[in-house]
């Protein structure tokens, strides 16, 4: 690769990161309905054209942001600090994972519901497969008597967008957070 | 009401019952894709016109059948034999209810997924409200420390059509049945 194309590629990586970080910060401050592509471009010091070139459209940018956050959670699970990362007992890691996953869904619930309706996506399927594998591996340790594979699907379905959205809209988000925590705790401490 | 209109009304009730029972029996024997309105009419000893007059179309008939089955489960819960009906400990009644609800979803999964997509229906809302109230009342007894209202929604969402359909299609229906039973058992036996 020439020095020039290397520099172009590293510019592209830097721009992508700057755009996603600017989007994240602006959404947190103003909410999804009140952030324009113009504002994002200005905050990331890029042109609107760069954003559309890289992400296609607004929906593409939002999808990329959700994947970026999901990838950050995956990294924390694989190599971050315990109890989310390795080094804590399986039951504690499961509780930390479901708490973190719940926050990820709460913060992205409108995007996730919109995205669930979209066609199947290999990127989304890969990350779902990773979650199921992670939960099932920890369940096998914490609950060797249970059917870890099926139970991982049942537990993760309890953090579904429709249920989360209902509780956000009725101002019961923290009640749902505590209930899902309680559910996972019931499962990991159950003894036949 | 004249004797004539009383007789007409009791004929209508009898026809409705005969049509639903014939549909139920034929679906169980041949599967939803292999049963025609003609076969149902013949088995129920009514005309095709009577079926369309009463249920609108095929989808309307299938929806009525699901409600008929849901109403039968509600009756069993309100006034049937324990452990589904009154008279058993709350934990046993919850386990019996989720087992029965799981079978109801399994037997009607394609219809339920189609129906979930439909517009909101007061009949469907009433029966959902009844399920939530029933589960929450029993949870309040079995798990006085838990948030019964939110937990009833989380637990019932674990018996969702998409999850059930995935397990039917991958020949894991009984594994899912056992896992949901295990989940409810974990919840009702959990102690802080």
TrEMBL record, chains A, B:
GO molecular function annotations of the record: DNA-binding transcription factor activity; transcription cis-regulatory region binding
PROSITE patterns, sorted: HTH_TETR_2 (PS50977)
Signal peptide: none
Key words, A-Z: DNA-binding
The organism's place on the tree of life at top rank: Bacteria
Domain HTH tetR-type: 13-73
Record feature DNA-binding region, as residue ranges: 36-55
Protein name: TetR/AcrR family transcriptional regulator
Protein source organism: Rhodococcus spelaei
């Amino acid at each position: 690769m020439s020095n020039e194309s290397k520099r172009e590629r590293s510019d592209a990586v830097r721009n992508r990161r700057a755009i996603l970080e600017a989007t994240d910060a602006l959404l947190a401050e103003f909410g999804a309905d009140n952030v324009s592509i113009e504002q994002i471009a200005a905050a990331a010091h890029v042109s609107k054209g760069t954003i559309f070139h890289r992400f296609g459209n607004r929906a593409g940018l939002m999808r990329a942001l959700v994947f970026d956050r999901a990838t950050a959670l995956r990294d924390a699970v694989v190599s971050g600090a315990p109890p989310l990362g390795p080094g804590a007992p399986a039951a504690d890691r499961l509780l930390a994972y479901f708490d973190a996953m719940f926050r990820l869904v709460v913060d992205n619930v409108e995007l996730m519901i919109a995205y669930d309706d979209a066609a199947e996506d290999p990127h989304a399927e890969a990350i779902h497969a990773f979650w199921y594998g992670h939960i099932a591996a920890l369940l096998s340790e914490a609950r060797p008597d249970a059917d870890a594979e099926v139970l991982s699907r049942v537990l993760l379905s309890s953090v579904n967008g429709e249920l989360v959205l209902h509780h956000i809209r009725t101002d019961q988000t923290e009640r749902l957070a505590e209930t899902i925590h309680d559910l996972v705790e019931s499962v990991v401490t159950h003894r036949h």
